[in-house]
Amino acid sequence: MEKILNYINGELVSPKNGNWIEGMNPATLEVTSQICDSEAADVEAAIRSAESAFTFWGQSSVSYRVQVVRKIADLIEENIEELSKIESMDNGKPISASKSVDIPRSATNFRYFCDAMTQFSSECHQTDPGLINFTTRSPLGVVGCISPWNLPLYLFTWKIAPALLAGNTIVAKPSEVTPMSAFFLSKLCIRAGLPGGVLNIVHGHGHKIGETLNTDPVVKAISFTGSTQTGRMIATAAAGSFKKVGLEMGGKNPTIVFADADLELATSGAKRAAFSNQGQICLCGSRILVEKSIYSDFCHRLIQKTREITIGDPLDPKTQHGAMVSGEHFNKVMKSIELAVQEGGKILCGGNSVKPEGLAGYFIEPTLIEGLGSECRTNQEEIFGPVATIIPFEGEEQALEIANSTEYGLAASVWTKDISLAHRMSEKLEAGMVWVNCWMERDLRTPFGGVKNSGFGREGGLESLRFFTKPKNICISY
Ligand code: NAD
Known about the structure:
alpha/beta; Aldehyde Dehydrogenase, Chain A, domain 1; 6-stranded mixed sheet; 25 strands; globular; binds nicotinamide-adenine-dinucleotide
């Protein structure tokens, strides 16, 4: 059984308390690993190691950082087969997704920020004659990066890459539910020649690690992706030492289909938005709003497409829908389906747990539910599973009212051929990102993040590099 060790000061080490957490394959229920159950002493060691490495890394040239980080990207690509398998076994996601999305994107995150950093320059300001006024950007120092389980290596590297390239040293905390790919990454960092202490990875439960990471004054910033509840706790704890905080949190995103939409495209898009990664993407469209005149036709088509989704062994290349990430999360999602029925919802398809042949794990059918008002808990709370509701609306005003009626504001997708309507909706939707006639098209230069209880700050391109640096304005009179 594999031991998932901490990566501190360039070495792979056991937790100081000698305690371990069991890691499980959610598709088979086999115990696959023992994960460090780290506590304050391990986090303190990681922070001290990062602090000491900063004196060198923070002063190093961009070209040197780029050279080391590119090597990490190369090694991820060389190990794509093994990393994809690990990711699917740890998370339950189909291997086709790990291999075509999660792992390639992790390498791309490093490569992209290598390029972005070389374009990130100081600003020079036009000012009064006799004065030179410019703004430099320097690294913050030691930063914390905390990531969730749904896209484990993809989101972990999305934070680490810009932080490293901007010259910071890092104490990173992957999810304890899916730590295997981050552990593999630590071995690749050693092989790539990343100097010890520049990146430290501490495994274990969030609340134990967070106690120190969120409060230690040496840590200058925390970049967090995860639930709104945890984000709130981190922001509160980090306020004591005035850390910079970036929060990417939950969503209850609307997919809004107008009567003039291309129905074939819209149903395919709504299905992908609702059920990709077993519905475990923050951007998933879990509320499908459909204009009344096409409601029954749309539902009929979407139900048909949803029933065609192949549920199966995550390691089978033909599988489109794998296992839920853990028993705890499986129970939470099954309870949400029960709640929807108690609230008066009618299940149009799915609604059950299933066991694909030979697998004992946590599988839930893609589920569509109708008949629920927008105020009910099912339409207000993030489920983060393969469960979407369908809600009829009449006209633009009502679509907006329903779409904006939750505490969340991460993303929305709008399906229409009317360009003016698309613009009006995009302007009025309370969301950090709006897709029109598409979903989850991502260009890494664009700002990513939410409004309301979905987020605070943005990631991507310049936004990430600005987050991980501090500006200093210098004015010289000559
Ligand atoms: P979570 O909040 O439970 O955990 C996220 C990370 O925070 C984990 O590594 C966890 O161990 C850690 N953590 C927990 N308590 C902590 C504490 N007190 N201090 C420091 N760290 C702590 O979220 P999850 O269940 O892993 O992920 C699912 C959630 O993430 C969903 O709400 C989803 O919408 C959200 N998410 C958001 C985005 C985004 O970009 N907006 C992307 C992916 C997932």
